[in-house]
From TrEMBL:
Mg(2+) binds at residues 17, 19, 179. It catalyses: 2-phosphoglycolate + H2O = glycolate + phosphate. Coiled coil: none annotated. Signal peptide: none annotated. The active site is at residue 17. Specifically catalyzes the dephosphorylation of 2-phosphoglycolate. Is involved in the dissimilation of the intracellular 2-phosphoglycolate formed during the DNA repair of 3'-phosphoglycolate ends, a major class of DNA lesions induced by oxidative stress. NCBIfam families: HAD-SF-IA-v1 (TIGR01549), PGP_bact (TIGR01449). GO terms for molecular function: phosphoglycolate phosphatase activity. Its cofactor is Mg(2+). Transmembrane segments: none annotated. This is Phosphoglycolate phosphatase. Belongs to the HAD-like hydrolase superfamily. CbbY/CbbZ/Gph/YieH family. The lineage of its organism: Bacteria, Pseudomonadati, Pseudomonadota, Betaproteobacteria, Burkholderiales.
Amino acid sequence: MKPTLRNASQLQAAIIDLDGTLVDTLGDFVEALNRTLAELHLPALGRAQVERMIGKGSENLLLSAMAHLGEPDPAARLPVAWAAYQRHYLHVNGRFSQVFDGALAGLQALRDAGLPLACVTNKPLAFAQPLLHDKGLAGFFSHVFGGDSFERKKPDPLPLLKTCEALGTAPARTLMVGDSQNDGLAARAAGCPVVLVTYGYNHGEPIAEAPHDALVDSLAQLSEWPGLANVQRA
Ligand SMILES: O=C(O)COP(=O)(O)O
Ligand SMILES: [Mg+2]
């Protein structure tokens, strides 16, 4: 059965994506990646190019960047690139990024409805946790899972299914909120209803083409969702 969003009152919990949904982290990615590429004696990439490569985790970003720059064997250089990238990312983390307008209001609306919230990102946990703390968002979440928390990342449904298990909720009653096809595909495969924001990063493709039940221009719109005030915490 296709999940429906008509019934916000039936929700038991919500899972929220991080990059491109809660925090505009493109500046952090660009900075950390270009510092890494410089160390590898490779040229820098522009913001638009980097934006298209974000979404499937850090290793994928590094491999995509090296392939784009014509590296003959990106996988062979990955261990060195990954070590440099971790160092640079942890250093720049949060310095070139900001919470999106409306994100706080959206989180507050979900919390006021009494829904437990989990953050599920493809970002490594060691990057995600300090960022959430830094931006004042950590307190909203009972669970935070990164791209390295489970065997597979979004768009695989595994992270969402494991998170529902941790929350003790049914996937069909656990809302996914994200910004990319990785969130939409993972949610569909897990059986979670899914709201996608229109302002995030989606590999340069129209977000309307990704699986979704609703699109919002701001997370603040979640507060107007009929039924949210009457969530029946079953
Ligand atoms: O790190 C990424 O590639 C994207 O992370 P996200 O799942 O929070 O959008
Ligand atoms: Mg995202």
